Sequence to fold (137 residues):
Amino acid sequence: MRFSAAEALAASGIDREAMAETLPRVDPSTVPVYRAARWFRLFWSKGISAVALPWGIYLHPDVAARSLDTLGRLIVHELTHIEQWRRLGPIGWARSYLGDYLSGRRSGLAHFEAYRTIGLEVEARATAAGVANDEPA
Fold:
């Protein structure tokens, strides 16, 4: 299974102009979306629905089985991570992401709470909510 992020956005009714304005470094038509292979998911934490890497988005098979019109918000979230990679570079992105997570853990937060407070995740949730015109998850 493979489709472009633009296909999911179109099926979900996400405004392409809003996307271009919000995420100027990412062209959704050039971002492939794949079903994540089992070996790849061995490295994922429990509950992860998708992972964005600079070259594409990987969906958990349960999520990939959904109809495209239900994936818009998740795809925007993951496209935001690709925008972050391009804005910060891989080292800057990893430093920020891991630094925030470890700071949360050192302050006593459990894994999921520390994950929720990562600045790049907060930004991705807010961007997805803004483009989808609803409240952050």
